[in-house]
Amino acid sequence: xxxxxxxxxxxxxxxGGDGQEVSLTNLSAxxxxxGIKSGAEVAAILAVAVxxxxxxxxxxxxxxxxxxxMPPPSSVAYALFDEFPLIAPHLxxxxxxxxxxxxxxxxxxxxxxxxxxxxxxxxxxxxxxxLILVTTPMLALVPLLILRFGFGYxxxxxxxxxxxxxxxxxxxxxGFRRVxxxxxxxxxxxxxxxxxxxxxxxxxxxxxxxxxxxxIGAIFGLLTxxxxxxxxxxxxxxxxxxxxxxxxxxPQFFAVVLILSTLGILIYVLFFLIGKKWASWET
Length: 283
Known about the structure:
72% of the residues lie in helices and 0% in strands. The chain is built from 9 helices and no strands. By secondary structure, it is mainly alpha-helical.
């Protein structure tokens, strides 16, 4: 097509609002977060954290709560730094499972979302199986996967992929459909093909929902990886949880829980920052 008949670009629009609520279900969650705007806010956040952690520490010591029931935060912090050289390799194993399974599940989920939005008949065929995957706890399949593939990485990676893929697919498909029909009609009037419409309109405008699906899929993948490690195998953070709880080493147990919580927060922050940079418009 000539320069005057170029397909209009719709991916450059910017959101004009500030202070939108950040949530997993808000399509504009990645556009702009509440943010930390001053040193006073940082000080207030730190002060609240100190009060909560200090209050828990004080209460546990005043009431002489045994460590095997609930260790004080100071013991958890000490265990984290003391045991981290032993925990670090297991953290690496869990990350390998998470990244590998999530990559497979995300790619398959995105491809399936594109297919079912372009070919409605395919959705009628695939939808029942996706519903089964979404409603079936993947941990229930881990023993079967272990029997088939052994105690190595393979069953865990498969479980993570099965947990992450449907989440990515559902959110991506929702994003692909939530496109202004007027924009598609305008593009068609310029002679755009179905593929051009998909790449120039549907995909860019669906990016916020795609990122939401990737975030949820990654978090579900992390939970599934840890659960699979608890079910069977001799490595991974889930294995450490089982081992420490069986030996009633609760400070070490909560240290691993703290690491897992940090991973979940990092996943959220990562996709929030990606979305804030690349999907900062209102759909």
